[in-house]
Amino acid sequence: xxxxxxxxxxxxxxxxxxxxxxxxxxxxxxxxxxxxxxxxxxxxxxxxxxxxxxxxxxxxxxxxxxxxxxxxxxxxxxxxxxxxxxxxxxxxxxxxxxxxxxxxxxxxxxxxxxxxxxxxxxxxxxxxxxxxxxxxxxxxxxxxxxxxxxxxxxx
Length: 155
Known about the structure:
mainly alpha, 7 helices, disordered C terminus
C-alpha cells in the first residue's frame, strides 16, 4: 500500500469549482484586477460559486496555493470563455456521438468512459450525461442478464 497511487474522488461540484477557479481567479488577483482587488478566493466564492460553503472556500484557497498558475496568467475575457465553452460543447457532442456508436455495438464500458469525457468538456449538461449513463448501464445489465441466460440454457 505504501507505493500505491493516491486516489482522490472529485465531485461534480468540485469540478465546477475548479473550472470557475481556472476561468476567473486571475481576474481577481494582482496585477490583473485593476481595481486593487487581490482576493480571488472571496470574489470567486461570492460571485461565481452559488451557496459556497466554508469548506469550499478552503478548497478554493488550497487549489490556488497548489496551482499558482491560475492567478499568474493573463485572465481570459468573457468572449474568450464563451468561445471556448462553445467549442467544448461541440466536442462533447462529437464524443457523445462516438459513445452512441460504441453503445450500438455493445461496447458499454467504452461508451461510459466517453460519456465521462463528454461531461468533462460540457459539465453544464450533467442531466444529459446522467441520462445517457443510466441508459448505458441499463443496457449493459440487460446484456449481461441475456448472456447469463444463454450460458445457463446451453448447459
